[in-house]
Amino acid sequence: MAQLAGVDRQFVRTAMKAPYLEREEEHTLAVRWKEQRDEQALHHLAHAHMRLVIALASRFRHYGLPAADLIQEGHVGLLEAAARFDPEREVRFSTYATWWIRASMQDYVLRNWSIVRGGTSSAQKALFFNLRRLRAKLSRDQRQGDSARMFATIAQAIGVSQADVETMDARLSGPDISLNAPVAQNENSSMTEQVEFLVDDKPLPDEAVGETIDTGRRVNWLREALTVLSDRELKIVRERRLAEEGATLEALGDRLGISKERVRQIENRAIEKLRRALTERHPEDVAGVMI
């Protein structure tokens, strides 16, 4: 009972006292449920296997989740197993139901153990539920004293990367911490919360919106100013100043059939024309659009 703290003791005792089903009786109940949808047969079948749910729930007690919730999730898995069970196969219902019960409990643990979603793939789930056991086993081996070697061994055994093992180990070592958790008491006798130590270097929303609007306005001003350039000037400015990787004077000169010094002269003349056009049209904010 100590392993299932918080679970109604009478419920556990009743489940443990339920009589075991013989193979023939189990088969008959399963057939009645599958073919006739006999609710009484389903209830009898599920009640007889609640001890299996309770036993499996005790294996997940180390994750700090309510045992009653684990049993409830296991019961859902038990009913799912009953819905899918084929009584004509020569398999005991308990053997078949164990997988569904365990899967339901594992999904519950993964959903509620941390606010950070994890274990979305089968390999990650195996890592989550086996890491502690494998690490404890390897720690007892004197040859596995190095953490890096230990993580590499676990990664190979489960079929994940060593980085995944290290990340999961860090998650399991440190539980979630509320941002409102008190950290220290300040000089005003009020508690300092964790959230107060978070720093966000991003601009405030109103500043970000303003910057977006100003950037769009300056781009339009520059587009208007570019119309004063000749075709060759425009090509040189685009290639030299507006492209992600600006072309060199020599490369641009080769394409245009002129010397690199001539390219430099045309570029300087084009920039001066742009500066004059912008100054005449938008003297109040010309600095923000110079290229």
Structure commentary:
This protein is mostly helical. The chain folds into three domains: 2-112, Four Helix Bundle (Hemerythrin (Met), subunit A); 122-173; 205-289, Orthogonal Bundle (Arc Repressor Mutant, subunit A). The chain has 13 helices and two strands; from the N terminus they run H-H-H-H-H-H-H-H-H-E-E-H-H-H-H. Strands 1-2 form a two-stranded antiparallel ribbon. A hairpin with a 5-residue loop joins strand 1 and strand 2 (191-193). It starts with 8 loop residues before the first helix and ends in a 10-residue tail after the last helix. The model has no long low-confidence stretch (mean pLDDT 81).
Percent helix range: 55-70%
Q: Which CATH class of the largest domain applies here?
A: Mainly Alpha
Strands across the major sheet, in which order?
Answer: 1-2
Distance between the termini: 76 Å
Largest sheet geometry: 2 strands, antiparallel
Q: What ranges have pLDDT less than 50 throughout 5 or more consecutive residues?
A: none
The rough form would be described as elongated
* Number of distinct helices: 13
Overall mean pLDDT score?
A: 81
Number of strands: 2
Strand residue content: under 5%
Write down the CATH topology of the largest domain: Four Helix Bundle (Hemerythrin (Met), subunit A)
Radius of gyration: 35 Å
Q: What number of domains? A: 3
Q: Helices and strands: which structural class?
A: mainly alpha
| Architecture per CATH nomenclature, i.e. the level-2 architecture of the largest domain | Up-down Bundle
